[in-house]
Amino acid sequence: MKQLLVLSGKGGTGKTTIASAFIKLSDAKAYADCDVDAPNMHLITGQSSEPKKTDYYGMPKAEINPELCIECDQCRQNCRFDAISVEKTYKADPFACEGCGVCEAVCPVAAVSLKPAVAGELMLYANEGKVFSTAQLRMGSGTSGMLVTEVKKQMKSAAVNTELVIIDGSPGIGCPVIASLSGVDMVLIVAEPSISGISDMERIIKTAAKFGTKIAVCINKFDTNLANTEQIELFCKGQGLPFVGKIPFDSDAVKAINSGQTIVDINCASGTAVKETCSKVMNLLFNEMAG
Amino acid sequence: MKIAVLSGKGGTGKTLVSVNLAAVAKTSTYIDCDVEEPNGYLFFKPDDIQEEEISVKIPRVDDKLCNGCRKCVGLCKFNALAFIKEKLFVFEEVCHSCGGCVLLCPEKALTEKEKKIGKVQKGISGNVKVKTGILNTGEASGVPIIKRLINESKDNNDLTFIDCPPGSACIVMESIKDADYCILVAEPTLFGVHNLKMVYELVKLFNKPFGVVLNKCLEGENPAEKFCLENNITILRRILFEHELGMLNSNAEIAVRESKKYSAIFSSLLETVKREV
After folding, report:
1. Would you give the DSSP letter of residue A222?
2. Number of separate domains in chain B
3. Nearest to A178 among B11, B140, B187 (CB)
4. What sign has the CA pseudo-torsion A236, B163, B210, B17?
5. Percentage with pLDDT > 70 across chain B
6. Which pLDDT value is given to residue A291?
7. Chain B residues inside the 8 Å CB shell of A105
8. What domains appear along chain A, each with residue ranges and CATH number?
């Protein structure tokens, strides 16, 4: 099984647009949306049946029983996350609490306990021989990296003996991205020809390289700034990174997305360009990077 | 007055809006809380840079004092400690720096050391004080950097714009904690509106007053606008998708400093926001 992960560093460069086109073009039998903070893939991959839903429990949250509490202030003093406050009684803020359990450990009268807390929802679609795993993190929750790991686990348990897996990642370089990187064979970075996009691309490349993952780069909306596009191509050449294509800005792409379709479902310039990028990536993934 | 700019989805124009609002104000502070991928400083190119390293505390074991009682291992909810072959190991990358292991060790075998995770950079760009948080690559959480940025500005009454990270998770929540008003930036796609809904829920959950800027408006249907109208959400401004603005922005230039037209647009947006607050 080969796993391809689509990342970008910067948000909004076109990860989901390109990942969804790749899924269609390669007829992938297993795919996942690991952008658990802001998942979007389900909007354009046309699910024909309802998903199997499972609650995702993140870290437990502290609760203080006011009847047992003797207001010794130990919990508040020792909480590194400023999660405990005093008004009329001692209270733990479930959004600030990271579930470390220090308050529970220091409380002399066992007034603090850790309660399991739902931090999101996992969804698994399985139809027509295809498996799609996704999730939605609850508002303001932490532990998105753990949920990303669960999304991947859920996909793998449902899709055995699959040749190709395509994973849509999240923006940034932090915990959800690091969790999505584990075990993948190759990362496709979708860059954007802006100064911000270049800076963010360099940071995500550094991050992926730290985890020893193979990297290829493509540029989306390349014609919005040709000078910056050239700079990205030169950068890839200098770093010895495979450059796998340029996709033009295309207002038809917006129309496709807004009607719940991928860019290869309609006849448009970005769809044509992404086909070439996809075949280059598949070639790298299955041939040149083999073994 | 503190104004947070957020979006749920990435790439909708948070940095465009917050940088240009800060630049068009008479004097202001701009705080970049998108510590994983900070971009505001690329536009402001600030001078007089001061840097401060940000560290978290990580436990360190003194093998001579550790008697293998495993109390710390039992306490650590993040599995950052393990006792293997008569030796205690610390897995720094999963440690949340709660300090519990150090607190509870009966032999005082654990102490804390500082681990650098990133930095805060401060500088000046004309009328704007620029503060940027930068997470080191390979680090999992930028929350301690955001906390530093936000806590430091707590008692500051300057007009402040907080450029938030994408998403609606803990890092965004931390960024908007002290905000007096939130600007949600949305783009006219199905993706844009889906993620707008999430930040809309977030600002409601935290009882923050807010309004929406519709960015990259094209001819034809705008699902984000439709969502705002259906939910009686204040639309602060529509910004058109224009080649000129796209070019300035992709070259990391501040539109209001380069063009009278955009200076007028963002001044009027700033006035609208001030009236709302």
Report:
1. G
2. 2
3. B140
4. negative
5. 100
6. 44
7. 75, 100, 103-104
8. 2-56+120-288 (3.40.50.300), 59-116 (3.30.70.20)
What DSSP state is assigned to residue B121?
A: E
The reply to whether B182 and B255 lie within a common domain is yes
All residues of chain A having their beta carbon less than 8 Å from the beta carbon of residue B37 are 9-11, 171-173, 196, 199-200, 203-204
Write the secondary structure of B157-216 as one string of H (helix), E (strand) and C (coil): CCCEEEECCCECCHHHHHHHCCCCEEEEEECCCHHHHHHHHHHHHHHHHCCCCEEEEEEE
3-state secondary structure of B253: coil
3-class SS letters over A149-161: HHHHHHHHHHCCC
Question: What CATH number did the domain enclosing B126 receive?
Answer: 3.40.50.300
As for the ipTM of the complex, it is 0.92
Residue B106 burial (CB < 10 Å; 0-12/13-18/19+)?
A: exposed
With 0.90 as the threshold, say if the pTM is over it. yes
Calculate mean pLDDT across residues B76-88. Answer: 94
B83 plus B30 within the same structural domain:
no
- Looking at the fold, whether B42 and B19 belong to one and the same domain comes out as yes
Same domain, B191 and B264: yes
Distance separating alpha carbons of residues B157 and B146, to the nearest angstrom = 18
Cα A38 from Cα A141, distance rounded (Å)? 12
Quote the pLDDT of residue B167. Answer: 87
Can you give the pLDDT at residue B93? 85
B256 and B235, same domain (yes or no): yes
Q: Are residues B131 and B256 in the same domain?
A: yes
Residue where the block lists tokens 């009966």: B106
Tell me the CATH number at B82.
Answer: 3.30.70.20
Q: How sure is the predictor about A289, in pLDDT bands with cuts at 50, 70 and 90?
A: low
**Are B121 and B254 in the same domain?**
yes
The per-residue DSSP string of A253-268 comes to: HHHHHHTT--TTSS--
Is B173 in the same domain as B254?
yes
Q: Is B140 close to A174, i.e. CB distance below 8 A? A: yes
The residues facing B2 across adjacent strands are: B160
Q: Which of A211, A228, A260 sits opposite B250 (nearest CB)?
A: A228
Of residues B75, B141, B198, nearest to A174 (C-beta): B141
d(CA A271, CA A160): 30
Counting Cα atoms < 13 Å in the Cβ hemisphere of B114 gives 6
Q: Where in the sequence is the domain holding B68, given as residue range(s)?
A: 63-108
CB neighbour class for B154 (10 Å; exposed up to 12, middle 13-18, buried from 19):
exposed
The rounded percent of chain A whose pLDDT value lies above 90 is 90
